[in-house]
Fold:
Amino acid sequence: MYLIDILILVGGLLLLVKGADLFVTSSSWIAKRFGVSEFIIGLTLVSIGTSVPELASSLTASFEQASGIVIGNVLGSNIANIGLIVSTAALLSNVKTEELMLRRDGYIMLFSVFLFLLFVVDFRISRFEAFIFLLLYFVYILFLLDKVKKHDEDIYFKDFITYFITFEYISDLKTLFKTGVREKTDENSINVAIKEGYEVTEGKDEKRGKKGEDILSENKTLSGIKDGHEAEIVYETESLSESSFLKEFTKLIASGIAIIIGAKYFIDKSIFFALLLEVPETIIGISLVAVGTSLPELMVTVSAARNGYASIALGNVIGSNITNTLLILGCTGLVQPLMVTGTAVYYITPFMLVFSLLLLLFIRTGWRIKRHEGLILFLLYSGFMVFIFRLG
Structure:
């Protein structure tokens, strides 16, 4: 009887997940085509891209005034990232960790959890509090772009707090914008020089009958590029021209439509089943929605762990938890103030805090997460989910 509803639910989730993957791929290509560096693409599009399903589903739920779905999705995704993804990576392969992972991003993740706990003591997240979340996230991105890129391992959590309260990010934002414009202008000049170099060389080739090796050599001379950079620039130009801009732009639009449609039907049917089964929205959010949107990351983690890259999964989990708390709650809370249930305040949030502390403790012990620690995380996650369902 409810087969069609189940199929729509699954279809919406597939559209949401696959649309998010295509969206990140196409937007990264277009950003690179317009001269955005790979470093910036990695910190923004790729990091946000892993949370696109959670963001889209939470925004849709916010427009539907389903605060329970939003809160459950964010908290559930953060807990699932640790209890499912990190534990899976650790069970498949010992996950190597490092001090920087703990003292910078780990503490920022923990700080965001404490801030969330502080904001929800009145059982709601106001628009002002949502704005604070969003501001902290963009400051975090600027902090990575400027301070971390320049100083690497010398930058920690205390530097982030100083960076935030001294408003240093305002001047850095202006500098970043000016630098980006200047780099784009320089790149356009380089591309023009390359093009002119080819045209001049081709004209000389017709007159002198030079061999291919001489043509390439003269390209380098006429383009006016510094030694060691011309080959890289030509190669990048050729690789970017392999796929048409129109094709990638069409993919971007199509993926955006898929995300919107998928998120709408996925959330609509999630609410439908919550009402049908008389299960609170928060429980649906922390289980069905959170686990469903985390499945792609789980599959990637399994693949990475099998190939010896389990530590990458841990870094993605910490970054994803920061994004979920600051970006997603910031965006959804600005759309509509979020009401928080007693279950979320008294049980789910404290567990998320303890779970986050436990993860940081495991990172610190021997600077690796061992298999038995992964098993502990998985068992705690399973037990907590059983407890929440019984409570609900």
Summary: The first helix runs from residue 3 to 33. Residues 57 and 85 are 20 Å apart (CA to CA). The radius of gyration is 24 Å. The chain is about 85% helix and 0% strand.
